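Team,

Forwarding the record for the chain on the shared tracking sheet. I've put the sequence and predicted structure together so nobody has to dig through attachments.
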Amino acid sequence: MSVTLSESAANRVRTFLTNRGKGIGLRLGVKTSGCSGLAYVLEFVDALNDDDEVFEQHGVKIIIDRKSLVYLDGTQLDFVKEGLNEGFKFHNPNVKDECGCGESFTV
């Protein structure tokens, strides 16, 4: 199982961690939410949990709990700028459908 990080996403995470002044990486997870069932969760990690899996790319650690990894296996996290908008984009091969607003998905 694996999750990958684009170079632009790694640069953005590194900038956030530097500005924050602490943290060992970024947690990527899922939670029950929205009209399609699941939503992505991103948060900084200061300490690992017993059930965490760690993936490292471009010098940045992505931390995922084992329950979320089932839904995120094969996902690439990217950071994109489109016009005036910018943000993280998830390329998740497990997604079967997304809600109209793009906030939640189903596998």
